[in-house]
């Protein structure tokens, strides 16, 4: 199968900012669709702000089957993860012991016909990853699963039993060069006609190739009531307001 990312950039409207289908977005979505087709397990890695969560949330909203997204807290206990999973799938709060939660979830998962997306999965402890693996195997791999997070592949290395079950992975990265320019200009009409040198300068000082930072730039244009092409002065003002990255 050819997994070479598509360099074309596509735009979806009707969001807080335009959804940009970058090459990473297209690859991540294709990977998730493959998992759904065969009830497989895939992972999406990459630095914060590169569009991982946006990609999987859009996928969940448009795939046409039920979906549940759980976001891991820092070092979640297995029972916390089970309760969050139950709530995401059924919409109902659940109580009980870990054993009771496992017993309740298995028949639900066996008849669910949906996709489970676990965001910030890199924060999970080994015991929680063991719990995820147990549910998937005990249900006879009855549902597809997408694991998402910065450093998720390194985290999975701590638990090879789960990593060995991956059928594929994608790694998102900051945008650069012409892909960066094409993506930014497609993001918002006020960025389309800005000189290349000004866009690159703003990216170098404020955005660092991260879609999230460019989305923040668009929100600051809204906050400043900029309605036409942004100027270098507008971008400099926004750069001074954006928090610095560590």
UniProtKB/TrEMBL annotation:
- State the source organism's domain of life: Bacteria
AAA+ ATPase domain boundaries? 38-177
* Family annotation (SMART domains): AAA
Supply the Pfam families for this chain.
Answer: AAA_22
GO MF, one term, reads: ATP hydrolysis activity
Supply the PANTHER family for this chain: GENERAL SECRETION PATHWAY PROTEIN A-RELATED, PHOSPHORIBULOKINASE _ URIDINE KINASE FAMILY
- What this protein is called in its record is AAA domain-containing protein
Which species expresses this protein natively? Phycicoccus duodecadis
